[in-house]
Amino acid sequence: MIKLKLAILGVGLIGGSFGLAMKAKLGSEIYITGSTRTKESSECAEKMGAVDKSYTDNISAVKDADIIYLSTPVLQMVPIVRQILPHLKKGTIITDAGSTKQYIANKLHAILPQDIYYVSAHPMAGREKSGVSAATKELFKNRCYVIIKDREMPVPEKVMEKVRTLIALTEANITELDLVQHDRCASIISHVPHITASALVWLLNRNYEDIEACIKLAGGGFKDTTRVASSNADMWSDICLSNSVEIINNLQTLQDIINDVITAIDSKDREKLYDYFSLAKKTRDRIIKESKNIYEIE
Amino acid sequence: MIKLKLAILGVGLIGGSFGLAMKAKLGSEIYITGSTRTKESSECAEKMGAVDKSYTDNISAVKDADIIYLSTPVLQMVPIVRQILPHLKKGTIITDAGSTKQYIANKLHAILPQDIYYVSAHPMAGREKSGVSAATKELFKNRCYVIIKDREMPVPEKVMEKVRTLIALTEANITELDLVQHDRCASIISHVPHITASALVWLLNRNYEDIEACIKLAGGGFKDTTRVASSNADMWSDICLSNSVEIINNLQTLQDIINDVITAIDSKDREKLYDYFSLAKKTRDRIIKESKNIYEIE
C-alpha cells in the first residue's frame, strides 16, 4: 500500500501537533518526515511520535513527499520553499499554518510552477508555550481552521479536497475566507490583541519602582489579559512585518478608542464611560455565546 | 455569647462572597445583615446563606452593627456612609472592598467622627460574572487582599487587628500598601488592563462588516485578552472616575508604547519588534513564577 508522505517543516508546537493528530488518525497509513532547527528538537519530535523521521535540513525532509506542511515563523516560509522547490515532485501540495496569508501567498504565487500547488491555511490554535515538547494531538480540536479560498489564486478542487480531508482529521472546524478578509480579521482578533497584551506588560516595566507591589497585586484579570504576552517572539515579529498595513491600521483605531476613553474620564462623563463598558460587555458576551453554538468550549 | 454583628452593604459578588466566607468559618458566632438594591437580590442573598437577613435599605441593615463592609460600586460608598452615620454606634468599624482607595479615604476622613473607624481595603478578586448569585466562599482564597496602612490616616492597631483577623478568615493573602501606591499599582495591573480589554472588543465593533468572520476566528487568545471586558459597567465607570489621574497617566503611557510598536512595524525594524515581544515574555513569565511562589495558583 502506498503510504501518504507528509513533510512537516518546522516541527514546533503547531507542526508537532499536526503530526500527532495525523498519526493518531492514520497511524501507519501516513509516513511523516520533519525538519527542525536543532538535533535535540528532531530527537524530541521522533520520540513524541509527531514524525517518523526528523532532520535538521529541509531538503532531506521533503524527499519524495506528497504534502508539505510549513509551520515555521512566517518570514522563513518563502526562503524555505525556494530552497526545496528543485527537489519536489510534480503534483506536490504545499500548505502552511502561517498567521498571515497575503504576504506568503503573493510571494509563492510568483515562484511556484503550475504543477506544484499551494493551499493557504491558518489554524486558529495555539498555546503560550512553544516548541515540539508542548505539542498535543488535540491542539486543533474544535478550534477554527481557516482554509483560504481566493478568486485571485484558484486551486484545483481535488487539491483543496485532499487538504480539507487531512485537516478535518484534526477535528478542527474548517472556515473558508479570502486572503484579504483573513488578514484583516486576524489583525482584529489575534494580532492586535497579542501586541496589546505585550504592551500591558511593558506598562508594568515602565513603572519599575512599583514592580514588586504590582506582582503581589496582579490577579486573574492581569494574568488573563496578558496571557498571550508569553508567546514566541520570533513568530510575532514575523507576523507584524507580514501583515503591517492591517496591524498598523487597527492599532491606530485602538489608539482612537483609548483617546475617547481618556476624554470621557477627563470630562467626568459617566454616561459615556458606562456605555463604553456596557457595550463591550454586551458584544463580548455575544461572542462567547455564539462561539459556544459553533464550537464545544472547554 | 455576644455575636459579632457584620453589615454588608451591597451584597453582590464581593459582598456575598465575603458573607459566605465569614459564615463558613464563624457560623453562628457571627450575625450578618445585608442590603441590596432589589428585593429579589435580598431573597437570593438570604437563600444562599451569605447573610442572615437582608434589606433593601441601608439604615435597617446597619442597626447595631459592629462592622460595616461596603461593597457597592465606589461612587455609592460615601453617600451611603453619610446616610448611615447618624445610626452607627460608637466604635463601629467601617471597611470597604472598593477598587480605588484615595477617593473614598479622603472623603470619609473628612466626615467620620473620631469614634467611628475606617479601614481602607481592596480584595484583588473577582469574576466577570456579577451579582450575589455568582458569589462563592472561595473567592478570596489565595488571592491578594490589600489593607491600607497610611501615615496620613492612621488607624488604632487594635482596630486594624480586628479587620485583619476577619479578612484572614477568607484565606486571602494580606498585603499592606499606602493609599497612593495602591491606586498607582491598581491602575497598572487592573484598571488599565480592564479598559484595554474593552477597547479590544470595541475594535471589533468598529469593524462591524467583519464581525461574523471574526467571531468564527476568535480563539483562546482573543477570549483571554478580553475576558474582563465582560465585567460590570457600573463598577468600572466608578473606578475610572475615582482614580482618574493615575488611569489617564497610564493610558497615555500605554499609547506611547503602542506608538513605538507602530513605528517599529512601519520602519520594518525586526530587531526592535523581537525585543518588544521577548522582553514582554520574560517579564510575564517572571510574574507568573513569582506569583506561584507567593500563592497557590489554580
Protein topology:
The structure is a homodimer of 298-residue chains.
Chain A: E1 4-9, H1 13-26, E2 30-35, H2 39-48, E3 53-55, H3 58-62, E4 67-70, H4 74-84, E5 93-96, H5 102-111, E6 117-119, E7 121-123, E8 144-148, H6 157-168, E9 173-177, H7 179-206, H8 211-217, H9 220-225, H10 233-242, H11 244-266, H12 270-294
Parallel strand pairs in A: 1-2, 1-4, 2-3, 4-5, 5-6, 8-9
Antiparallel strand pairs in A: 7-8
Helix pairs in contact in A: 4-5, 7-11
CATH class of the largest domain in chain A, please?
Alpha Beta
Strand runs of chain A, count: 9
Give the count of helical stretches of chain A.
12
What is the CATH superfamily label of the largest domain in chain A?
NAD(P)-binding Rossmann-like Domain
Note the quaternary state here: homodimer
| Shape-level CATH architecture of the largest domain in chain A | 3-Layer(aba) Sandwich
Specify the biggest β-sheet of chain A: 6 strands, parallel
Helix content of chain A: 40-55%
Please report the two chains with the greatest interface, counting residues with C-beta closer than 8 angstroms to the partner's C-beta.
Answer: A-B, 94 and 94 residues
Mean pLDDT over all positions of chain A: 94
- What's the end-to-end separation of chain A, in Å? 39 Å
Strand order of the largest sheet of chain A: 3-2-1-4-5-6
Bin the strand percentage of chain A: 5-15%
CATH topology of the largest domain in chain A: Rossmann fold
What is the ordering of alpha helices and beta strands of chain A? Answer: EHEHEHEHEHEEEHEHHHHHH
Coarse structural class of chain A: alpha/beta
Question: Looking at the structure, what is the overall shape of chain A?
Answer: globular
